Amino acid sequence: MKEQELQKQTASNPVEMERTRNRKVYVPRVDIYETKESIVLLADMPGVDESSVDIMLEKNVLTINGTVEPVAFSGYNLVYAEFDTGDYQRAFTLPEEIDQNRIEATVKNGVLRLVLQKAEKSKARKIAIKAE
């Protein structure tokens, strides 16, 4: 892979909201796959755990916010760093087929897993015709 592909992508206008923290904001890389029952999103957010991630759903827009606090070692001064820390932000517009009441989220080792269950589809049925 090219070096440019491995670098974190900073968000130019993350989710159009005002931020109270003066920190870099990164767009987490996400893998999306679909099964018969759900759509699954895996977001790579190193340093995030269950207490530092917020997921909001408003008007069919699912917003992910993750905060990462920089690590400081007492008695040491940082001379050189190849990895920069910052917050994460990403938003997705959900299709109508998602059951918004059955979204599940877990985080493990800096990977956020969202399972978006599909809504039950209306079953085909025969319409009875009545004579007047």
Topology:
Layout: H1 3-6, E1 25-26, E2 29-34, E3 38-44, E4 53-58, E5 61-66, E6 87-93, E7 98-108, E8 111-118
Distance between the termini: 72 Å
Residue runs with pLDDT of under 50 for 5 or more positions: none
Fold-level CATH name of the domain at 23-72 and 80-118: Immunoglobulin-like
* CATH architecture call of the domain at 23-72 and 80-118: Sandwich
Share of residues in strands: 35-45%
| Total DSSP E strands | 8
The sequence of SSEs as H and E is HEEEEEEEE
Task: Give the helix tally.
Answer: 1
Helical residue percent?
under 10%
Please name the defining characteristics of this protein.
single chain; 132 residues; mainly beta; Immunoglobulin-like
Short description:
This protein is mainly beta and 132 residues long.
Q: How does this model look, in words?
A:
With 132 residues, the chain is mainly beta. It has a domain at 23-72 and 80-118: Immunoglobulin-like (Sandwich). Helix content is 3%, strand content 40%. It has 1 helix and 8 strands, in the order H-E-E-E-E-E-E-E-E. The chain has one helix spanning 3-6, and strands at residues 25-26, 29-34, 38-44, 53-58, 61-66, 87-93, 98-108, 111-118. The strands form 2 sheets. It has a 4-stranded mixed β-sheet, with no helix packed on it. Strands 2-3-8-7 form a 4-stranded antiparallel β-sheet, with no helix packed on it. The termini are far apart. The relative contact order is 0.24.
